[in-house]
Amino acid sequence: HILGFDNAIAAGEVFSGAFLGNNISPLSDTTNLAAGIGGVNLFEHILNMMYTVIPAFIISIVGYIFLGHQSGSADLQSVDAMVQTLHQGFWISPITLLPVAVLFLFAWKKVPAIPTLLVGSTVAVILAFINDHHLSLAKVSTILMSGYVADTGDQSIDTLLSRGGIESMLGSAALIILALGLGGLLIKFNIVATLIDKIKGYVNNPAKLIALTALS
């Protein structure tokens, strides 16, 4: 909206990218959950997901390129103003990409998600202390828990940057915990096994298996 793009197209692009990342990222909660429940190797699961996710993503890119040519151009004055505000209030340097580089490196080395996130967060905290020597450990802890609150004077940028923190993910974490708890009860009471016995006779080809999985 800030750049003058069509809201519907921009939302679709963001959703497509998020869907891709959520399915093939070794740090994704749902990807780890699916691999864990299925009892398969995480990276084998990701490779198998790519057979369906990557073609859909390529089709989306082609579609958005076509739609982009039909819409107007970006408001470059707004872009310049935003960049100037960011340079005034933040440390803009290739060095700040180091936590992201660590995440990519650990993912490439097939390091588990939790150590990867811990090391990436630690590197980010170290860079924060290097950039601001007056930053306290209590302030960093608050940001990690509740998220960062921007105060640049530009409402659009403040709204964009004021987010994050562990608390923002508690809803998803609670949903996963409740789902696992309910799943455990269904397995313990033999409900899942009974349902599988009832339907496995109908699942005699991959198409039916995919359809039943989607319906479940």
From TrEMBL:
One of its GO terms (molecular function) is antiporter activity. Keywords: Antiport, Cell membrane, Membrane, Transmembrane, Transmembrane helix, Transport. InterPro entries: Na/H_Antiport_NhaC-like_C, NhaC_Na-H+_Antiporter. One of its GO terms (cellular component) is plasma membrane. It is found in: Cell membrane. It comes from the Bacteria. The chain crosses the membrane at residues 49-67, 88-107, 113-130, 173-196. It is a multi-pass membrane protein. This is Sodium:proton antiporter. Residues 17-215 form the Na+/H+ antiporter NhaC-like C-terminal domain. It comes from Enterococcus faecalis. Belongs to the NhaC Na(+)/H(+) (TC 2.A.35) antiporter family.
